[in-house]
Fold this protein.
Amino acid sequence: MLEDLIGGGGVILAIALFIILCIYLGIRIVPQSEKHVVERFGRLRSVLGPGINLIVPFLDRVAHKVSVLERQLPNAEQDAITKDNVLVKIDTSVFYRILEPEKTVYRIRDVDGAIATTVAGIVRAEMGKMDLDEVQSNRAALIGQIKNQVESAVDDWGIEVTRAEILDVNLDQATRDAMLQQLNAERERRAAVTRAEGQRRAVELQSDAELYAARQEAEARRVTADAEAYATGVVAEAIAKGGLEAVQYNIALEQVKGISAMAAGQGNSTIIVPADAADAFGKAFQMLKGRV
């Protein structure tokens, strides 16, 4: 009887241990930074996301634990030839993360190596479409093109390329020397153009100043001529209205005033009176009487 109890207790204990083992094997806790790929008899069964997940013990197994954190490929340097036949060395860096682990696990073996090879080929192809000056000045556009093409190439692997960078564009010493000479020549050309522009501007300003002075002088002459013409017109109009007699009266009156001023001077100076002075006095007196 005791043996029966012991034997029954052992069975119950074994069943309890088996249940505990099934629970242990059937519950899978996945960290936030990972995804687990589950296989059943060697075939893809499911992909477990973060948190508590249940699988069928002894039938299902976690075959791959894949990190979904963003990764950075080691910095790579590759040679490339630009459109204008300049040999350059390009330092690149690529960041990516896995979105669909089932594609990454079953479609590609070496993810990092495959992405590095793809990036190297795309960089060489894009560099061959651009001159060296374009590479230096349009680096942002070049990076964008490389990123888009890499994304298209790795899409079947369940990977997202988050960032692609061109860290540096290195040239050999001969190319550097040639570029330095070209840069110095360009600076000298710009300086010569600047000097020529300054001289041309100075000549233009001097010409403008001379033209302005000539215009001002011509305007002054025109104003003077207009004034003289106006005065002549006034005199002519006065002659037309007052007659020649009025003009003669004014002339005779001015002569009388001049002789009077000379006579009023101090000293014993001898005054020589013109021969027609008497006639001038007489004419002036007669005209004055006529006006009165």
The longest strand covers residues 159-171.
